[in-house]
Amino acid sequence: MAIGVASFNLLQPVIGNYFCLIDENMWGIIRQNVGVTGGLSSQGLGNHMMRLRPVASAMRNYSSATKEMTVRDALNSALDEEMAADPNVFVMGEEVGEYQGAYKITKGLLDKYGPERVVDTPITEAGFAGIGVGAAYHGLRPVIEFMTFNFSMQAIDHVINSAAKSNYMSAGQINVPIVFRGPNGPAAGVGAQHSQCYGAWYGSVPGLKVLVPYSSEDARGLLKAAIRDPDPVVFLENELLYGESFPVSAESLDSSFCLPIGKAKIEREGKDITITAFSKMVGYALKAAEILEKDGINAEVINLRSIRPLDRATINASVRKTNRLVTVEEGFPQHGIGAEICASVVEDSFGYLDAPVERIAGADVPTPYAANLERMAFPQIEDIVRAAKRACYRSVPMSATA
Amino acid sequence: MALAHRSSGLLKPLSTASSSSFLHRRPYSTDDTTTITVETSVPFTGHNCETPSRSVDTNPKELMTFFTDMALMRRMEIAADSLYKSKLIRGFCHLYDGQEAVSIGMEAAITKKDCIITAYRDHCLFLGRGGTLLESFAELMGRTAGCSNGKGGSMHFYKKEACFFGGHGIVGAQVPLGCGLAFAQKYRKEGHVTFTMYGDGAANQGQLFEALNMAALWDLPAILVCENNHYGMGTAEWRAAKSPAYYKRGDYVPGLKVDGMDAFAVKQACKFAKEHVLKNGPIILEMDTYRYHGHSMSDPGSTYRTRDEISGVRQERDPIERIRKLILAHDLATEKELKDIEKQARKEVDEAIAKAKESPMPDEPELFTNVYRKGFGVESFGADRKELRTTLP
Q1: Residues A33, B352: Cα–Cα separation, whole Å
Q2: A189 to chain B nearest CA, in Å?
Q3: Exposure winner among A20, B42, B62, B226, fewest CB in 10 A?
Q4: Which of A369, A274, A288, A280 is nearest to A324 (CA)?
Q5: pLDDT band at B376 (very low <50, low <70, confident <90, very high)
Q6: Residue A343: which H helix or E strand, with range?
Q7: Nearest CA of chain A to the CA of B367: how many Å?
Q8: Contacts A336 to B, Cβ<8 Å
């Protein structure tokens, strides 16, 4: 069937790569659902294939050469384009301007947009996060950078109480179109105070949207969507992904490209087991899937892309197909993302489960510095493989418990 | 080693005794009875407070100790730079070279019952508190012989028995913690004080002012030491602070501005501060200092400062050079002997690194130790909770 413009990149058969212009104040969305169930709002069985008619300006001739882009460049280009499109967008944070960004994500922006729109702050998160939220109250669209989300704890009151809850408390008068972005989770050898994943904490707060890009396309599409979104968005990046290159479709390079918030992406189709992951763990899950394939286990890998809203529809649809689930995250296990996904599946798809849900997460300890202990503290590919095999009732060599 | 006789008229051969250690060959090095008076480089500037005298008493032993200890600290940090570049040290590594005089001068004025707490630029402060090179390098390389058994890393050195409370990664957080140490000291009527150290970057943190207000309200024996190296990460002080006169930022809390590159100025100021806070409540000491390295090993340190500035400070204000000149001026040692001390420091550092490399990485069960002091038999899990689970002691 003619899918239309679901995917332009011929070399990357990706399912569910939506092309969507979401800001309701800007272009209209022309969408026709050609999926099995027909309705947009149904609790979908099977993946929707959305047929979209793109806005004319986005039509182009596609070369078949794949372009690659690092996540860093993807984020930089997204910021650049959004700042060019809307003068209300500004960037604020430590070292974002003259230093060109602690991780060079904001490189070149100061030269292009000037110090009024690329604002270097002192090392005072509570202060500048609050200032950012206040600016958002008054109609600006700040992009606040936390050098890592560990430092967001200094400012978390503003993220939650000042940003997330304002639209509700004011009965819709005061929306907060702010983006809090920065690296989240562990890097390499940065120790206990610099390695925590905040996905579960922010993901539990109504009023926030929480996005977790993996690839460069994710980074571009989701950041642009976040900046255009009228609500506060927590945008959790990953330091180790910044330098990684991914192929990007031509359409994703267009300045109007953005991805829908709240939709997960099936990175790899499969029929035997579902593996959910986000951020860096998507890469690990895909590698685990390759290893499992050799053992005859055909894994479906879901890139969550969005922790809040969580795409329960896609996850449940997948589990109803495969009957088995492994959730993967780097954060602490108790009250984590995997716990919520497990609960959702048990609530909505209990009858379809053929095995208990397996959770792979960070170890239940503060992050150690020593390299061997740090490796044990975070999921490795073999952990995902092992859990998947357990869920498929394949025998797994027993190893001693600690 | 034979004593080197020099024909220079300035130097009189002080001793012909021979022995193995070059430091023991000359009686001056253990001489702590002869008083030498030195003048600090600049007078102190006070805020709501009278200033101590510029004349500081010392003795040959202290001078030689200052030199030796600072040479060791300097060597340690430079060696850490190389280890980081060869990837034996991972993650973050914030070096203190240039700032040694603050640690050395402070230790000369206080006891090991006074507390010190600082942020992540903590290697030399740890050494000053009695930590060893082996503990330091082993920790940096993530080995069991490290002061935190390899579990903390560069930013998390501690030595509780010497009242050194770390070692903190979050900018500014150590300031309320330090005021808390002072709170406990007062609560227990100990008669000791706390030096809580922070940088010019942290000086703008709100929590500092909250803690300072309470410390002043409750007369806590807290000495807030701002190590002003003029750059908070990559941002110069004038771009981050409306008022970079950090010693005045306490407003109602008195402050003293000190040349942090002059170990004797630091010593004098800390002695003064200790006496002050035990009677009058908190005080701020601003140490005017400089770091030669960038903010951390991931920062070249030259995109926001000129190389001329860095080499200028090294030439004009280096803390070790200051002591060297004093030693030579007072005929306490020859240039060669001082160079030998530096060589010895290098040797000690190299030996410590070699020993640290032999120390193994922590055993795998260490992943789960020290989560709690008292675990109640709680379960804890590895990444795969069905594969690795344990009960915490």
Answers
A1: 69
A2: 4
A3: B42
A4: A274
A5: confident
A6: helix A337-349
A7: 6
A8: none
pLDDT tens figures, A5-64: 333 343 343 333 333 344 444 433 333 333 333 333 444 443 433 343 444 444 444 555
Whether the link from the prior residue into B167 is cis, omega within 30° of 0, is yes
Residue B286, H or E segment: strand B283-288
For residue B306, give Cα distances in angstroms to A391, B227, B300.
59, 20, 11
With CB atoms and an 8 Å threshold, state whether B367 touches A376. yes
Which stretches within B86-205 are classed as H helix? 100-109, 123-128, 133-140, 174-187
Residue B281, Ramachandran bin (φ over 0: left; ψ between -120 and 50: alpha; else beta):
left
What share of residues in chain B are helix, strand, coil (percent, to 5)?
A: 40, 15, 45
Contact B383 A378 (CB under 8 A): yes
Question: Is B234 in Cβ contact with A95 (below 8 Å)?
Answer: yes
Task: Report the SS3 class of residue B44.
Answer: coil
Residues ≥6 apart with Cβ < 8 Å to B144: B138, B150, B359, B360, B361, B362, B363, B366
Chain A CB contacts of B142 under 8 Å are 189, 369-372
- Rounded to 5 degrees, what are φ and ψ at A354? -105, -5
Residue among A192, A372, A387 minimizing CB distance to B361 = A372
Interface predicted TM-score of the whole assembly (ipTM), two decimals? 0.89
- Residue A51 sits at φ, ψ, to 5 deg, of -100, 125
Q: A368 and B156 in contact by Cβ < 8 A? A: no
Question: Chain B contact for A97, CB < 8 A?
Answer: no
Q: Which of A94, A191, A361 sits opposite B383 (nearest CB)?
A: A361
Model confidence pLDDT, tens digit, residues A287-332 = 999 999 999 999 999 999 999 999 999 999 999 999 999 999 999 9
Residue range B294-306: average pLDDT?
Answer: 97
Q: Shortest CB distance from A390 goes to which of B92, B303, B386?
A: B386
Q: How distant is the Cα of B356 from the closest Cα of chain A, in angstroms?
A: 13
Cβ atoms of residues B52 and B75 within 8 Å = no
The alpha-carbon radius of gyration of chain B (Å, integer) is 22
State the DSSP H helix or E strand holding residue A387, giving kind and residue range, or none if neither.
helix A381-391
The verdict on a CB contact (< 8 Å) between A386 and B384 is yes
Query: In the structure encoding, which two tokens stand for residue B238, read together?
Result: 């004038």
The string of pLDDT tens digits covering residues B120-173 is 999 999 999 999 999 999 999 999 999 999 999 999 999 999 999 989 999 999
- B198 touches B223 (CB < 8 A): no
- Which of A197, A334, A365 is best to mutate for the B interface (most B CBs within 10 A)? A365
Q: Which residues in chain B have Cβ-Cβ distances shorter than 8 Å to A95?
A: 233-235
Tens of pLDDT, residue by residue over A93-105, are: 999 999 999 999 9
Q: Which residues of A are catalytic, by number?
A: 125, 194
